User: What shape does this take?
Amino acid sequence: MTSTTTETTPVRFDTKIAVVLRDDLQPWQRLNVTAFLVSGLGSELPEVIGEPYADADGTPYLPMFRQPVLVFEGTKETLTAAHARALSRALPQAVFTSDLFTTGNDRDNRAAVRAVPKDQLDLVGLAVYGPRNAVDKVIKGARMHP
Assistant: This one.
């Protein structure tokens, strides 16, 4: 007999969405950075988005990621290393630098990142998406966010 997937069978994804936050951020910064980072993945990688939602009354809701977002933390050095590893593996990533806490709009955010060479970015967070094993290697050294 062959096994079949049912509505109650747990789903195991072959990909991973991971966010790594610098461990010295304040709580409001962690939430803000996470929201900004994952918005980049959802806008550029349609395969990470599931189907729209609706409640029992038929009220429609926006779709969300089709899989969990795992949030990690690490030191500044951990983020720098993760960034370099993601680049070397050509994995899609979003970055948030400390400069973005002082800007107030998308245009200024992009200009702040554009003004700094990639190996000098003061990263406070990054989001990465890709095959599970590759993402695990990218975020090596980060620990699960408490």
Q: What stands out?
A: The chain is about 30% helix and 25% strand.
